[in-house]
Each structure stands twice: as C-alpha cells, then as structure tokens.
Amino acid sequence: MTRTIELTREPRLARLFAKAVATSAGRGGALPDLEVVRPDVKVDPAALAAYDRVCGFPLRDELPSTYLHVLTFPLQVALFADRSYPYPLTGSVHLSNRIVQHRPVGVREPLRLSVRATDATPHRRGATVDIKGQVHAGEELVWEGSSTYLYRGQKAEGEVPPKADEPEAVDGTGALWRLPGDLGRRYAAVSGDVNPIHMSRLGAKALGFPTTIVHGMWSAARMLAAVENRVPPAYVFDIAFGKPVLLPSTVKFVAHDGPDGVWQLALRNAKKGTVLARASVGPAGAGSIS
C-alpha cells in the first residue's frame, strides 16, 4: 500500500536538506512505496516574475515548464529526507531531466503536486533513481517530470546495463552567455535550492569543486527559454548534464532546428568547446512519463 506524505504548505528547504544529510547514515534497502503530495498550490506572481528574470523567460501569465519543476523540487527533498528512502543525499549527482508539458499552465490555476521514486538501477559508478513528478490542474494532468540522480558507491538490484552511446552534441555558431559569479546565489533565491556547491566557494571546494557551479536546472531553464517561443504549446524537453558549469564563466549556447520540429540544443565551454549540457525539445505527441 502506498504511503502518502501530504504537505499543507511549502516546506523550508534548508531544514529538509539538513535533515536529509543528518539522517544519511545507515540507510539502505529497496525504494519505498511513498508519494509526497501538496494540494491546492497557488503560484505567487512576484516569485514567478523573479524566476523569469533570472532564467531569461519573458514575463507572462503562463508558467515555464521548468518552474513547475521548481514547485515540485521541495517535494523531492521531502522524499530524500524521509528515513525510508534508501540512498544518502550527500554525494548524489543530478544526471538528467525529462519534462512533458501537456498544455500551458496559467499562473492563477490551483495545482496539485506529487512526486515518487522509481526505477532504482545499477550503474557502473553506483545506482540511479528516477524521481517522477506530476502536476494536476483539477483532474487534468498538465505536466510531468522525471529527474535522474546517481548515488555514487551505492547499490541496486540487478545487472549494470551497458553504457549507452550518447548522441553528439550540436556545435557551430552560437550565442555567448557570460555567467556572473553570483548566479548560483541568485538562482537559489528564486528556486529554493540552497546546496552549498552553488552558493559558497568554500562549500563547493569542500565537496570537490574548484569554485561554485551553476545549478543544472538553471542551465535547463536558460536553454529552454532561448527557444520556447519556437516550440508548440505541448512539448517534450530532455536534458543531460555533462561537465559542471563553473562560476564565473562564459558559455556558448547552440541551437539547431530539425525537419521533425525537434530542436537540438547544447551548452559548451566558450574556450574549450567542452559539452556542459545537451538537450532537445519538440512536439509532445504521445510522450508521457509512466
């Protein structure tokens, strides 16, 4: 039987992060049959406008699909903080995201958010888990998202699948984006993701990075914002994260449109050409996340 945690208000993420880290020791076992939900969520237009400014979206009465990820992210952290979740938060790596927008969502629509953990899979460096979220407006499913996390050194039942061939990221002429040193703190202020690797140079160094790095979901949002006015109202957006984006830095954004209406996107280091993230966005069709 599924156990449900219902949140009646937006949780304090800093407190949840601290709880998840403090209770990491001694975890293990299978993924719990657990769902975290938050009903009757009303969007704060001022908070949405601040997010739009940081991520490059125009101000409007519709929610960027990546902002719906921001709304569901505290539920993910509540899931990580529950002692029944078998994997420790410390050392986890955000590998990729898939978003399906079934239709645009208006800023004044009351929403029901939910997340659950699925598909614990062996990986050559540990184990991966997909955290899947849904957003309903009334009875209508309007948004789905899946975040894949790697838990280094952890285990999951089964055989390690062979490494899949990754498609070559697009390259060529692109836009140069200069990312300021405080971008991690600015995105944290509008998303609530206060992981120290994004906020503090000392915190980043303590966790193995030479300096602060930008949030992966800022990169996702900024890349989507650059082409969102050229994709249909219902779309699928996929992104895989590569090398960390150090702050401050200059990156190159490349976008190629295909004959099937699918845009191929890449974020590269402006000097070395290293792939930092690759993504695609195109018509949703029958796309969904089970």
Automatic annotation (TrEMBL):
It comes from the Bacteria. Signal peptide: none annotated. SUPFAM superfamilies: Thioesterase/thiol ester dehydrase-isomerase (SSF54637). Transmembrane segments: none annotated. Pfam families: MaoC_dehydratas. Residues 185-255 form the MaoC-like domain. Belongs to the enoyl-CoA hydratase/isomerase family. This is MaoC dehydratase-like protein. It comes from Barrientosiimonas humi.
